Amino acid sequence: VRGPPPRHPDDQREELPAVEGIIADAAEMKAGDRVVYPNQGVCAVIGVEEKDIAGQKLQLVRMQREEDGATVMVPMNKVPSVGLRRVASGEQMEGVFHYLAAQFDDPELDWKVRHRDNADRLIAGGVLGVAEVVKGLHSLSRLRPLPTKEREQYDNARHLLVHEVAVSLGVPPGLAEDYVDFALMPPAGVKFDLKPPPKPVLLPSRPKKRRPVAEEGEGDDLGLGDLGIDLGEIDAALAGATGVAGVPGVEGVEALPVEGIEGDSEGEADAEKPEDEGAEAADGEAEGDAEEDLPPPPPPRKEKPAHAEKAEKAPRKAPAEKPAREAKKKPEKPEKPVRKPAAATAKKPAPAKKAAPAAKKAAAKPAAKRGGKKK
Amino acid sequence: VIRIVTLDPIDAGDMAFLTATLYRTFGLGTEFAGEKSAPREAETKDGRLDAVRLLKEADPVRTFADDKVLYLTASPLALKPGPLGEPPCWGFADYGKERAVVSTSRFPARGVTETSIENWRRRLAREASHAIGHLWDLHHCYDAKCAMHPSWSQSLPANPEMDLCSFCREKSERKIRLAKT
Question: Which chain A residues are closer than 8 Å to B94 by Cβ?
C-alpha cells in the first residue's frame, strides 16, 4: 500500500506491504458495498457518477457515510491512493481484540513522534492501526492525562474503531464499544485466553533532522553565486592567502591568547584593547602578502570564506574562536561596517559558548552584562 | 427532553434525585414519563433481559425530535457475547439515537440508612448520565472520575462520581447545541 503522501516532494514514497482489504482498483467497488474511508469511517458505495468539474469530465465514486449520511465523492483514479479498504473481516477483528486485550506498557513518550505516528496509523494502518492508536493513547492516559489534541485524537480513533467493529460484527455501536472496553479495561478477576497479537502496522519512515542536512548544504553553498560574487575568484584568493596569513588563519591564532586573557577577569578590559589593536595590525600585516591578489575593500570576500572555514573548524575550535571574534567586534564596528553581517552571524552562538567559561570562572564582568541585558 | 420510563416500581425520592441530576448534567428538561412493563420478547432463558432487544421491543413513548427516553429496570440485563466474552451490563444505549436502558440489579444494596440510600441514588444518577451520554454521542472516557468511564472498570471507586469530565461535558454541550431542535 502507498503510505501517506511524502512530506517533501524530493522524498521518495516508500512501498509498504498492503494493508489487508485495501481497494487497489475502483472497478472492485460495486453499489451497496461497504468500505472504510480512512479518518471518515464506514461508507456505503452508491455508484459511479460523471461530473463536469473545472471543464474536466471526471468519473467519481459516490459514497455515503453511514454514521450521518454525508456524501463522499472520490475520483476513480484516486481510489487506490486515498486508502479505501473493505470493512475488516471477522478474523481481522479477532486479532484486533486480542491486540487490545494484550499487555501494553510501553507507550511512545515523545509527543511529536507519537502524534505523527498516530496520524499515519489512522490514515494507512487499517483497522489494526486504529486499534493501535486507541491502545497506545489509552495506556498513555494511565500515566498522565492526555493533552487536548491527543484527547481528541483518542476520541476520533475510538469513534472510528467502534463503528468499524459494529459493522464488522453486525452489532449496534453501543455494544461494539462495550466489547472494545471490555478488552481494554477488563473487570476485576477476568482473564482472557489470548492468542499472540498480530504484527504491528508498518509505518513509512520519515526524514528526520532535516535541518542539519540543510545547514550542511548551506555550508557548501553560501548563496554567493546569487549575489553575483565569483566563487572561483574567492577560492583562488584563499589558496594564496590562507597559507600565509589569511583572515581565518589570523583569527585562529588570536583565539588562543585571548581566551587566556579572558580568564583573567581583571586584565580583560585592558587586554582587549591591545589585542584588538594587535588584531588590526595583524590583519594589516597578514594581509600584506595577500593584498596583491585581494582588492582593497574586500569585505564580502574576506568574511564569507572566513565563515565557511568557521563552519569547518567550529567543532574543534568553537570555544577558542568566539572570544577572538568578540574582541574584534568592538573596534571593527565603526571602521569596517561591512563586517557587521559576518560578525552578526558569528554572534549568534556566542552567548551559549560564553556561558560555560563564565560560569566556571565566575568572572564578574559577564555576570554584570547578563544582568544588564535582562533589565 | 429526557423522558424516564420505569419498567419496575421506583421510589419517588429516587426519581426526583435522578431528574434533578440529569437536568444539571445535560441542561435538558427531564421528566418521569410513566411506568411500563418489560417486553416479553426481551426475556432470555436465564431470566435476564436482552438489552438490545428490550430497546427495540419496549412500548413506545410519545417523543419529539431530540427527545431521549431512558428505561429503568431492576432486572439484570444481558448482552450478546463478543469476541472475548460477554461484557458485564449495567445499562445499554443506542449510540446517538433515542433509547437507553439502565438496570439497578448490579448496584450495591439500597439499604435503609441515609448514607446507603444516598449512595444508591448517586450510583443510579451516574449510570443514567452514562447512558444518556451515549445517546448524545459520547464515548467511554478513560477518566475514572467521569460518568462516562466504563461501569465495570477496576479503577472505578466504590462510590463513583456522577459528573462528566470537562472534555465529555464540552462534547455533549456541543452536540446538544447542534441538535435538530
Answer: 172, 174
